[in-house]
Structures are given as C-alpha cells and as structure tokens.
Amino acid sequence: MESAQNQGSGRIEARLAELGLALPAVAAPVAAYVPAVISGNHVYTSGQLPFVDGSLAATGKVGAEVSADDAKKYAATSAINAIAALKSVLGDLDRVVRIVKVVGFVASDPGFTGQPGVINGASELLGEVFGDAGVHARSAVGVAVLPLDSPVEVELIAQFQ
User: Fold this and answer.
1) pTM as predicted
2) Most buried among 38, 79, 84, 150, using CB within 10 Å?
3) Distance CA 105, CA 107 (A)
C-alpha cells in the first residue's frame, strides 16, 4: 500500500495550525501491527499512546502516579497521534467526513473511576479539530495496565470520502 503521508493539506491542517498543534511523525508500532488500516470508506487506527518526540509523555496509573488532569492532556496527545495515523493512510485530512467512534483506555488505580473525564481530552480535541464531524460515539475503559506502562491509549474509527 502506498503511503499518503506527504500528500495534501487543507482546512483541517489549517485548523490544527490555528490551535497551535502540529502533527507528529506516526509512531512506530511497538509490536506486529500497522498504525492505521483502510476498510471500505473507514479508517481504523491502532491504539495510540501519548508519544511526544518518540517518548511517552508519562508512565503509571491514573489516580496514583498520574493525575486525572494530566491524563486528560495525554489523551489529547494520543488523539493527535491518531490524527497523524489517519493522515498517513488518507493523505488529506479533509477527506474525513466523520469521526465515528473513539475507544479510550485508561490505566487506572483500583479506586479511580474517572475514565470518561480522562478520555474527554481526546473527544474535546477531535471536536475542536473536526467540528461537527468530530462528534462521535465512544467507550472509556479502565484497565490494569497498558503497553509500556502508558497511562492512556486512544484508538478511533473515521469515515472518509
């Protein structure tokens, strides 16, 4: 499959710039998978961790080593990484007509129950970037541990034309 990473930029990338956001390089997979796959007119991203410049922004459990407020920011970072994965297969983010579904995982201390608030970081960012097309269905799940001891992981499904 031909990579579309360096094709086209338009209204969505202008919106990212207005928000002071730059798309990072797509994070290299940490196991046997690819960052995003097209099936029909949907893109499915693999789970994206909050990598910044090739390193995790934080490690640990939310509600213990990581605050809910910080985890919300890491969920937004994970969403930016998911947008980069979208662009890597679509070339032009203006092709996205809807973010259909977001699944967010939160590595949670046993007493932590604020997973929806943490994953709001991703949902709110997608709304800011894509407008009405960024409104989506969602799951926010607490888990015991995530890859590399990441506090959050976000994946999404996007419809495109």
Assistant:
1) 0.93
2) 79
3) 7
